[in-house]
């Protein structure tokens, strides 16, 4: 059975799921209650984290288990700013992104030296260290109890504070759309080609004279900055930060989201994050206590049935060999 | 036979001038690549290259031949910086590059192809060439779309040289073996190297592909130094003006293709390997 060529064309492949997602994101808030809306905001924040993982795991061939660490750094930056009276959302996003980038720049020097499983373990260790540090540094983070007293933000200076779940959702959605658009634009540029080439054949890149380690470090810093951005959003949504936000299960869930969504698709990573939040929080209503089981089943199904991820369903281009197909 | 003499006749004026060229341009030494006491022992105890002393003169077409396991590919890997020698020095254009990384060596002008042609399989053929040219191009800000397009347009000439213009938009992973080899060679050419290392470039090519490869090699600027590792002696005698024979990681003989083809020691070395290759040697003689 051949798939009509028009269904495989780029506009259709990206446009149809993209449009469906856009419609859902715009319409859903009006039909959900406050809880549902805040879950969607949470899914978006996790989605940004998932996109940052897909930059590393998908584009750069660096499967990371520690992206929750810069996420946590971003969230704490926003939390500290809020408790000190700096409640301008855009400013929090900028600072959280910047601090997370600096954090990633430092940790990246260690992580980038390793590859494959070693990279996985190094990033896992860095993530766990960050969580532990957040739990111990009570004066700044409030320790394992978490950080309370985070006040509502104003998106821009002079605007009213965001008081409802709905207004927070629109803020988070706008910020997410802007940052994903930037990521998309960068990954579609020659920069994305450099990363893909490093992933395809790193040794060949080096032989061709490309400073691969520098590229990957930069990708690591950029992904860290993006994760920090997501962390700020998470702080905005929850009005609370604790070391749990950077936990191993969060990192693993997000890597799962990327696997579900298709490793090199930012859109897929977003969808994957949505699926995970839905499974964990919505389906736990009808199936109480079975969230982890459902996630596990979903993962098995995903790996066996959709090796290219949700974004790859029925859109897989058959491999062409030899002459024109 | 006639083929060999015509090729060497084409090449010899240039190579005879090699010393006068180096006198004119102080940065160019007559010996482009010079290895001394070069040794590579692998962890299993295998001595792939054992104390080689070789010079590859600038602007000449060198071939390195020898039976399987003679250390030919290891020698290329050592020159390209893919491997670190156990002992010995490598000089490139008068400069000691023994400890220089392969990224740096590539930027200094040493390009190579691989025995198993390696390409970036998810990218298009045109992108493969452009990315191979990237570190060596003077275009600034190539990460910007417009500049990258400029680079890509410039690189169309290499697609043409390699005969893969028609495949430009195809993902490199979907190429047939011979096409992939031509792409690998095109990528090496796109680096505009001063030293070109070719690891069995003719293996797996159709007759037409070999013909194209020969044309591409003859079209190389005269000042490019080529070192080609190859099994096929007919190919070697068509492209090379100097042949170096390795056996068990040691130098066995060096000379013109005709001299080498007549060399008794070389025949013995090849006979020890298999009965097929001597026929190829025979044909040339």
Automatic annotation (TrEMBL), chain A:
Domain of life: Bacteria
Membrane topology: Multi-pass membrane protein
Keyword field contains Membrane: yes
Main location: membrane
UniProt keywords, alphabetically: Cell membrane, Membrane, Transmembrane, Transmembrane helix
Annotated CDD domains: TM_PBP1_LivM_like (cd06581)
InterPro entries listed in its UniProt record: ABC_transp_permease (IPR001851), LivM-like (IPR043428)
Ranges annotated as spanning the membrane: 12-32, 44-62, 90-112, 168-187, 217-241, 253-278, 290-311
Tagged with keyword Transmembrane: yes
Cell compartment(s), UniProt: Cell membrane
Pfam families assigned: BPD_transp_2
Protein name (record): Branched-chain amino acid ABC transporter permease
Record organism: Catenulispora pinistramenti
TrEMBL record, chain B:
Molecular functions per Gene Ontology: ATP binding
Source taxon at top rank: Bacteria
Tagged with keyword Nucleotide-binding: yes
Residue ranges, annotated region (Disordered): 1-21
Domain ABC transporter: 33-273
SMART domains per the UniProt record, alphabetical: AAA (SM00382)
PANTHER family: CONSERVED COMPONENT OF ABC TRANSPORTER FOR NATURAL AMINO ACIDS-RELATED
Record protein name field: ABC transporter ATP-binding protein
Organism: Catenulispora pinistramenti
């Amino acid at each position: 059975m051949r798939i009509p060529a028009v269904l495989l064309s780029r506009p259709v492949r990206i446009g149809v799921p993209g449009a469906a997602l856009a419609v859902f994101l715009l319409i859903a808030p009006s039909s959900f209650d406050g809880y549902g809306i805040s879950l969607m905001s949470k899914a978006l924040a996790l989605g940004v984290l998932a996109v940052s993982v897909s930059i590393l795991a998908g584009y750069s061939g660096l499967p990371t288990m520690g992206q929750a660490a810069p996420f946590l750094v971003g969230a704490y930056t926003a939390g500290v700013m809020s408790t000190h009276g700096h409640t301008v959302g855009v400013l929090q996003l900028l600072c959280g992104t910047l601090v997370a980038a600096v954090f990633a720049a430092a940790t990246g020097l260690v992580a980038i030296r390793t590859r494959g499983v070693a990279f996985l373990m190094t990033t896992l260790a860095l993530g766990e260290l960050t969580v532990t540090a957040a739990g111990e540094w009570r004066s700044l983070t409030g320790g394992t109890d978490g950080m309370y007293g985070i006040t509502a933000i104003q998106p821009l200076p002079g605007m009213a504070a965001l008081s409802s779940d709905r207004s927070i959702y629109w803020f988070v959605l706008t910020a997410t759309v802007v940052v994903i658009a930037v990521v998309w634009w960068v990954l579609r540029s020659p920069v994305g080609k450099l990363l893909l080439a490093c992933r395809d054949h790193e040794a060949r890149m080096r032989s061709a004279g490309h400073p691969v380690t520098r590229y990957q470090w930069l990708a690591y810093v950029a992904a860290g900055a993006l994760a920090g951005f997501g962390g700020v959003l998470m702080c905005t949504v929850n009005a609370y930060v604790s070391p749990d936000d950077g936990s191993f299960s969060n990192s693993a869930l997000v890597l799962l989201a990327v696997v579900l969504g298709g490793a090199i698709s930012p859109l897929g990573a977003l969808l994957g994050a949505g699926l995970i939040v839905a499974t964990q929080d919505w389906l736990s209503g009808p199936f109480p206590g079975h969230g982890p089981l459902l996630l596990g089943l979903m993962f098995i199904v995903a790996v066996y049935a959709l090796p290219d991820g949700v974004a790859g369903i029925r859109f897989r281009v058959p491999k062409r060999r030899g002459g024109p197909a | 036979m006639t083929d060999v003499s015509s090729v060497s006749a084409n090449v010899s004026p240039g190579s005879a001038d090699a010393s006068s060229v180096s006198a004119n341009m102080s940065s160019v030494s007559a010996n482009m690549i010079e290895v001394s006491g070069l040794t590579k022992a692998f962890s299993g105890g295998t001595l792939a290259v054992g104390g080689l002393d070789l010079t590859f003169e600038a602007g000449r077409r060198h071939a390195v031949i020898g039976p399987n396991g003679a250390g030919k590919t290891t020698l290329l890997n050592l020159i390209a910086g893919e491997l670190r020698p156990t002992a010995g020095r490598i000089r490139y254009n008068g400069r000691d590059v023994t400890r220089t990384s392969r990224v740096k060596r590539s930027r200094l002008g040493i390009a190579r192809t691989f025995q198993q042609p390696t390409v970036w399989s998810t990218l298009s053929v045109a992108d493969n060439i452009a990315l191979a040219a990237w570190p060596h191009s003077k275009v600034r800000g190539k990460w910007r779309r417009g500049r990258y397009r400029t680079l890509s347009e410039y690189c169309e000439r290499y697609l043409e040289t390699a005969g893969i213009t028609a495949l430009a938009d195809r993902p490199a992973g979907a190429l047939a073996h011979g096409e992939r080899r031509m792409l690998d060679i095109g990528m090496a050419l796109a680096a505009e190297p001063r030293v070109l290392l070719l690891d069995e470039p003719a293996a797996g090519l159709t007759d037409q592909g070999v013909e194209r490869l020969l044309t591409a090699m003859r079209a190389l600027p005269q000042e490019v130094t080529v070192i080609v590792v190859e099994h096929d002696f007919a190919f070697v005698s068509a492209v090379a003006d100097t042949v170096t024979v390795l056996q068990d990681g040691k130098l066995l003989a060096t000379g013109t293709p005709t001299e080498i083809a007549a060399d008794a020691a070389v025949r013995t070395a090849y006979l020890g390997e298999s009965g097929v290759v001597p026929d190829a040697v025979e044909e040339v003689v």
